[in-house]
Amino acid sequence: MHTRIVTAILACIAAPSLAACQPASQDVGAGAPTSSAGRPAKSTTTKMAVPNFDGIGLQPAQDKAQSTGFFLLTSHDAAGRDRMQVFDRDWKVCFQSVAAGKKVPTTTMLNFGAVKTDESCPSADNQAPKKAAGTMPNFKGKSVKAARGALDSGTSITVKDASGQDRIIFLESNWQVCSQTPAAGSKITGQPVEFIAVKFGENCP
Question: Over the range 138-157, which residues count as b (16 or more CB within 10 Å of their CB) and which as e?
């Protein structure tokens, strides 16, 4: 996952005294801004229409979002393979978490679902499975890397090549799960897990 967060830091500069840097006391609650009349001030959160990022490169999408005022940005592999987006220029946007044209506060996090530039966008945004909670998820079709990430880090996991060629499964994001033991829906009790997998682009036996 690729995350880009820009944080603004406000400082008191050239104040004539330390007291000038201290916030005024407020009767309406800690941290609540007030008007000159002592009433709570209206929110000044800026709302902007979210641009359409569909089909453009991930790096230009991030630049466009920031130029519009959105600085809380993240992205994920829309193919569900949990691949690392090392170079943003090698990826393109297929999905966005907030629809184009919708007005939202500029403090909203925008999440881009992306694939590599030479790949076709999937019909649906296939995010990596969430952390397993109590029962075994169905990992069929997911990458071995995404499946591993959804299980507790202490889980003993074995991965076997379904082709029978006994290939070394080196880059787990390039391999998809064909079957699993325990089966989906089984109670998780700390038992070992086994995945049978093939490379993406190959058919499961």
Answer: ebeebbbbbbbbbbeeeeee
